[in-house]
Amino acid sequence: MKFRNILLFITILLVGINQWGADKINVVTTYRYIADITQRIGGDRLSVTSLAPGNLDPHFITPKPSFIARLRKADLLIINGGQLEIGWIPPVLQQANNPGIMPGSKGFLSLMEFIEPLDVNLNASRAQGDVHPEGNPHIQMDPYNIPLFAAAIKDELCRLDEDHCTDYQKNCDSFIRQWAEKTAEWDSSLARLNGVKVVEYHKLYEYLVHRYHIEVINTIEPLPGIPPSSRHIAEIIESIEKQNARLILQDVYHGSQVAKYISGKTGAKVVIIPHDVGAVKEVTDIFSLFDEITRRLTGS
Ligand SMILES: [Zn+2]
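The joint structure predicted for all components is written out below.
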């Protein structure tokens, strides 16, 4: 090949790569667990980024200017929903001013709509703390919800990009198959927690405890978003002793001093349970999220 031909070839190749890159569907997700599932379904057809880091309180994310820039360029926004993002996503969405990803538009997906919510309380008021009327929003904590999200994301990608629907379908099928195998392992390990009594800091683990018949006897936060009084802490200590609760489930973003104090008085063990990809260093994707939850809960 002559030098000029080689140059021509390289130019064509670079233009090709560039167009192929520009062609990708730009997806923004609010949380990292959603980004991981989406990437598995979309493969290299997508460019996926998530806004919130996995180790912060998902209710209270401080928006950065970069959020607006990313939303402005997005073709698809996938949120958790159930008002989990109500404190931080509406203002950035408004500033991004991208009609294609606004709620109700073709490029907007809320995962909460695809599962059976727990703790629905339509009469909730702010006086009851940071209560969510549509139900508990921490929906990723039940491994059985994950395939429902995968299917919803696959359907959405098929609507946006019909030409590659069979690829999305294939990726989704293989993800759901792999997930079912892992779920069988988690089920058999977590079966030993059936009937175990626990206390949790925030109502972050409702879907997990409901799935595995773990009994929450009390919550360190008296109401969602409200820190405990010393009187409430004394009540928790009493209830742990009376009911022989064994574990205190603590999230990664509230300080664990109260849980440790209660543990010191009662002997109940504090277990830090991750809630998202990146919550702790062991959790790098949606599979290791449940591997790590299982490992920590079973003490293995
Ligand atoms: Zn919450």
